[in-house]
Write a structure and sequence with these properties.
Blueprint (H helix, E strand, L loop, with lengths): L3 E3 L1 E3 L2 E3 L4 E6 L4 E7 L3 H16 L7 H17 L1 H12 L3 H25 L4 E4 L7 E9 L2 E5 L5 H14 L3 E5 L6 H12 L7 E3 L8 H7 L5 E5 L2 H11 L6 E4 L4 E5 L5 H13 L9 E7 L3 H14 L18 H16 L3 E4 L19 E4 L6 H4 L6 E7 L2 H9 L3 E2 L1 E5 L3 H8 L6 E4 L14 E2 L2 E2 L4 H8 E9 L1
Parallel strand pairs: 1-5, 8-9, 8-11, 9-10, 11-12, 13-14, 13-19, 14-17, 16-17, 19-20
Antiparallel strand pairs: 2-3, 4-5, 6-7, 7-23, 12-22, 15-16, 18-21
Helix pairs in contact: 2-4, 3-4, 3-6, 4-5, 9-10
The protein binds nicotinamide-adenine-dinucleotide (NAD) and (2E,4E)-2-amino-6-oxohexa-2,4-dienoic acid.
């Protein structure tokens, strides 16, 4: 029986349930915690608690009171950062250095940043002419959406959970939030922090469970939920959108990707190989922004493939707590089976496996973990399934191109449209291409460099709407126009 117990947090209290499930450490394959699955009735209780909070002092809170709460939460995460790191590494198997440098500090940054954004947010104002010549003033005010349902995935658990909870609360909403069933740990610690810093009851409610037939579906179908924000697979987004149509509730979706990198012969070669290796293999390729399609200008194609494969071969895979480990396991046995299906499919579709393609030999306690080799393919046709479908593992395909127009055509030949990175020392070209690639995010000579004030989101199957900075405020609040006749 595991010692760790992850409970729900509803109306300011930790709540057990009659139904529990195991939380598996993917680096060992062993159950590390017991998770209390919220029933539909408990989710409904959480929705009522959130509504109650909106009717109480939280509903009348000032911007400064809300910002101060967010700052206290950020400080609370910082104070317990090693607890958060341990939970994140335990749940995902990601290298401890990654959790320490990316996931946990970014969790705190989400709260601190949205505290500052709401403190400094302004509205619109127009002086309008009227027939009597005295004029009118039009100005906007923001009001909360109400009860916001937050549903997040397992790949960057705390980062993606807090990225939505923080702006929702900054705007004065109350939330009912569900982390992925694979990664309940840091969200539960966050609930502890909310309790420690004195958040009013019902403002932040946490429910655990799965999607269909479980807590996820209960959040989506609850008529007490006024808006839904979701990060996950495009297919799940489509299902949620159908259910949210009942009541015409607003949705914000951050979904899948099949992102391209365009590498030009004039790039800074070594920095580009490092950048593309990072964008393909970070977090075992389990970042929605990861590069799975690399297009390289023909004169440097062979040299680039060799160098990228070299980076993949050199990666240290294994125990996430060991020093110098760069790659942990995939999230689950099921996900590894899916990725291995693509490794087999690539061969059937005619790929040359330049490196990887299998399961690495890992000794000791980690022998039971869901590790996989970082993999580089070449030789596929653009219409191959391995080029068109999201794998969500540490794998990319590299294909040559001859000119800029072809590079743009190949990048855009996808039903997804999340991110693209362009690698060139010709910034005029980079800027030109940024306008031509059908994605929500373009990086020039870098990848996953984030300023939380900037718009984040995807085109096509990759999402709906934008979050980040004032775009988050636009989703998490109703903008009201006030017209004053002078
Ligand atoms: P998923 O869609 O399977 O699950 C995401 C969350 O939704 C989980 O909490 C799950 O329990 C819940 N869920 C599943 N079905 C549901 C339903 N019918 N109703 C309500 N809730 C439901 O996604 P995942 O496997 O956890 O995450 C990987 C996917 O997420 C990849 O496709 C990846 O590209 C995408 N992703 C996108 C972004 C982005 O910002 N665009 C960020 C991270 C991950
Ligand atoms: O950095 C972010 O704000 C963000 N939403 C990242 C998403 C990563 C996807 O896996």
């Amino acid at each position: 029986m595991p010692e760790i117990d992850y409970r729900n947090f509803v109306n300011g209290r930790f709540v057990e349930s009659g139904s529990t499930f195991g939380d598996v450490d993917p680096s060992t394959g062993k159950v590390r915690a017991r998770v209390h699955e919220a029933s539909a009735a408990l989710v409904e209780e959480a929705v009522h608690a959130a509504r109650g909070a909106l009717r109480g002092p939280w509903g009348a809170s000032t911007i400064e009171e809300r910002a101060a709460l967010l700052d206290r939460v950020a400080d609370g995460i910082d104070r317990r950062s090693e607890d958060f790191v341990a939970a994140e590494v335990g749940d995902t198997g990601k290298p401890v250095e990654l959790a320490r440098s990316l996931d946990v500090p970014r969790g705190a940054a989400n709260f601190r940043t949205f505290a500052n954004i709401i403190r400094t947010a302004s509205g619109e104002m127009y002086e309008s002419p009227t027939p009597d010549g005295r004029g009118a003033l039009n100005y906007t005010i923001r009001r909360p959406l109400g009860v916001v349902g937050v549903i997040s995935p397992w790949n960057l658990p705390l980062l993606l959970f807090s990225w939505k909870v923080a702006p929702a609360l900054a705007c004065g909403n109350a939330v009912v939030a569900k982390p992925s069933e694979e990664t309940p740990g840091t969200a539960t610690l966050l609930a502890e922090v909310f309790a420690e810093v004195g958040a009013p009851d019902g403002v932040f409610n946490l429910v655990h469970g799965f999607g269909p037939g479980s807590a996820g579906e209960a959040i989506v179908t609850s008529t007490g939920v006024d808006g839904l924000t979701f990060t996950g697979e495009s297919k799940t987004g489509a299902t949620i959108m159908q259910q949210a149509a009942d009541g015409v509730r607003p949705v914000s979706f951050e979904l899948g990707g099949k992102n391209a990198a365009l590498v030009f012969a004039d790039c800074d070669f070594e920095a580009t190989v490092d950048g593309v290796a990072r964008s393909s293999f970070l977090n075992t390729g389990q970042v929605c922004l990861c590069t799975e399609r690399v297009y390289v200008e023909r004169p440097i194609f062979d040299r680039f493939v060799e160098a990228l494969a070299g980076r993949a071969k050199a990666m240290r895979i294994g125990d996430p707590w060991a020093e110098g480990i760069q790659m942990g396991p995939l999230i689950s046995q099921k996900h590894r089976e899916k990725v291995l299906t693509y490794y087999d499919l690539a061969k059937a579709e005619g790929a040359e496996v330049v490196t990887g393609g299998g399961i690495p030999d890992i000794a000791g306690e980690q022998a039971g973990g869901w590790f996989i080799e970082p993999t580089v393919w070449t030789g596929l046709r653009q219409d191959a399934r391995c080029i068109q479908e999201e794998v969500f593992g540490p794998v990319c395909h590299v294909m040559p191109f001859d000119d800029e127009a072809e590079a743009v055509r190949l990048a855009n030949d996808s039903k997804y449209g999340l991110a693209c990175s362009v690698w060139t020392t010709n910034l005029t070209r980079g800027h030109r291409l940024a306008g031509l690639i059908d994605v929500g995010l373009v990086w020039l000579n870098t990848w996953f460099l984030r300023d939380l004030r900037t718009p984040f989101g995807g085109a096509k199957l990759s999402g709906l709407g934008r979050e980040g900075g004032r775009h988050s405020l636009d989703f998490y609040s109703e903008l009201r126009n006030v017209c004053v006749k002078l």
